[in-house]
Each structure stands twice: as structure tokens, then as C-alpha cells.
Design brief:
The chain has helices at about 75-80, 130, 140-145, 150-155, 160-170, 175-200, 205-215, 220-230, 235-245; strands at about 5, 20, 25-30, 40-45, 50, 65, 90-95, 100-105, 110-115, 120-125, 135, 140. The chain is of the alpha/beta class. The radius of gyration is 21 Å and the shape is elongated.
Length: about 260
């Protein structure tokens, strides 16, 4: 196959940090990127590329997959995720400038002995394993992905939940009204914790979305400002004070000179 990245092509290369799969690639061979321990981002031209055994196995820093065209077969995305246990952020572009941003949580696993059968069974812990199953007919199954939210709320911590929530509401590709309501209900119930996380991470995109599109009471805004001040993050403090003035709100009780 001429349009194939050959078996073991980059295996063990510790210098590769990101890789653009060339347009026209039809197959990524066995263990092509095996043990590329610095690889963190893979760019895919589309999702119809055949992924052979272990192509991205043992790439512990791989955390971002960016697909330029998701309108069609996305089988290769499923196959890449199959070998991953760490958290992965996936960005998929669709026609008409639409985009999906998804977080696939990491998970842990162990092998448990089944003595009568004399075999070992792999058991996963956390919602990440279930999120990896969100594919149907070679496409991302967004309904199933969003349906796992109730499970994730129980098994995952705020850092994971905050990003799933933010990604799905900011990029609502195939987001049903019911799923959107479930995400927003969680935001209303846990807005203080979520805002604190976004501030700590300096996630201005999420802060702008939630503070400018979702209603908040003054108590939560005071918390946001006091958190930003205690962490000494001038950019966030300035943004919050500008937002206060823009909206014509009363002072939230923060010293405006402590920037």
C-alpha cells in the first residue's frame, strides 16, 4: 500500500511532539508510533484511515487529537482511543464551520484472576472506558456520549466534569435539548466549584462563556472575584471588573486597586 505509514516507522522516537498525518494516508501501520513518549498531538485529515495494531500504543503524553474533516467515517478515532488510558481531548471539524470538542476521560484498569477459568479479566475504573465506546456506524455517537453524563457526575472529579460541560455547551454539535438541560442544571448546582476551577486554570474561554451567557447571582460573582484575587491572577481580576462595569452591576466587594 503506497499511502501507508509503514510499520514501526517512528517507533521509539522521543523527539516527536506532534505529528500531522499526511493528506491521502490510507493506513497507519503496526506500531508506527509505538513508544513515542513525547508525542502529545496528532492531526488527522479525516477519520477514514485504517489503524493497525498498536499504532499509537505506549504514547503516555498523547492528549490531543485534531481531525480536520469529521463528515464521514470516524473509525480511526475509535481505534486510536482504544489503545489509550489517559485523558484525551478530541476536536472534530464538520461542514459549514461547525465543530465538536470532546473530552474522553482517562481511566485505570487492573487484571483480576478468574481462578476457575484460569484466565485474567481486565477491569476498568472510571467513566473513561465507557466514553471510549461512544461510536456507532463509524461515527461518534453524541447521544450516547451525552447520556454518560449521569455516570460521569458520580465517578469523575470537578476538573474532568468542568471540561466535559464547557466543551459540550460551547461547541454544541448534535447536542439535544435534554442533554443541554442536564449540563446546565449541573452548572447551576455547582457553579462556584466550576468557576473556581476555570479561574485556577486561567480558562478564559470557559469563563467568558459561563459569565456572559449563563445567569449568575451576586454571591457566585463575589466568589469568582475573591478567588481570582487570592490567586493573584490580574488578567482574570481585570476581566471580572470590566464585566461588572459593562453590566452596570454593583461592586462585588473586591479592592479594585489590587491588580
Amino acid at each position: 500500500m503506497n499511502n501507508k505509514i509503514r510499520d514501526y516507522a517512528y517507533a521509539g522516537d522521543r523527539e516527536i511532539t506532534e505529528f500531522h498525518i499526511p493528506e491521502g494516508t490510507e493506513c497507519i501501520g503496526r506500531h508506527a508510533f509505538y513508544n513515542c513518549r513525547s508525542l502529545h498531538t496528532v492531526y488527522l485529515p479525516h477519520g477514514g484511515i485504517e489503524i493497525e495494531d498498536g499504532a499509537f500504543k505506549n504514547c503516555p503524553k498523547l492528549s490531543h487529537i485534531i481531525m480536520a474533516d469529521g463528515d464521514g467515517d470516524c473509525t480511526c478515532l475509535r481505534d486510536i482511543l482504544y489503545d489509550m488510558y489517559q485523558e484525551i481531548t478530541v476536536s472534530i471539524s464538520y461542514p459549514n464551520n461547525r465543530r465538536s470538542l470532546l473530552l474522553f476521560p482517562g481511566y485505570e484498569y487492573e487484571y483480576i484472576a478468574n481462578e476457575p477459568a484460569r484466565i485474567f479479566q481486565e477491569v476498568g475504573y472510571g467513566a473513561g472506558y465507557l466514553y471510549q465506546q461512544c461510536f456507532y456506524n463509524a461515527q461518534v455517537d453524541y447521544q450516547r456520549y451525552d447520556g454518560l453524563w449521569s455516570r460521569a457526575r458520580v465517578s469523575e472529579e470537578i476538573p474532568v466534569l468542568a471540561r466535559i460541560l464547557s466543551f459540550r455547551l460551547r461547541f454544541p454539535y448534535m447536542l439535544s435539548m435534554e442533554a443541554g438541560t442536564a449540563y446546565r442544571d449541573f452548572w447551576k448546582a455547582r457553579s462556584g466549584e466550576l468557576l473556581t476551577y476555570f479561574i485556577r486554570e486561567r480558562d478564559m474561554d470557559s469563563l467568558r462563556y459561563f459569565l456572559e451567557t449563563e445567569p449568575l447571582d451576586g454571591t457566585v460573582m463575589k466568589l469568582a472575584l475573591s478567588t481570582a484575587q487570592s490567586l493573584e491572577i490580574p488578567s482574570v481580576i481585570g476581566y471580572l471588573l470590566d464585566l461588572e462595569q459593562r453590566d452596570g452591576k454593583e461592586s462585588f466587594g473586591i479592592n479594585k486597586f489590587d491588580l
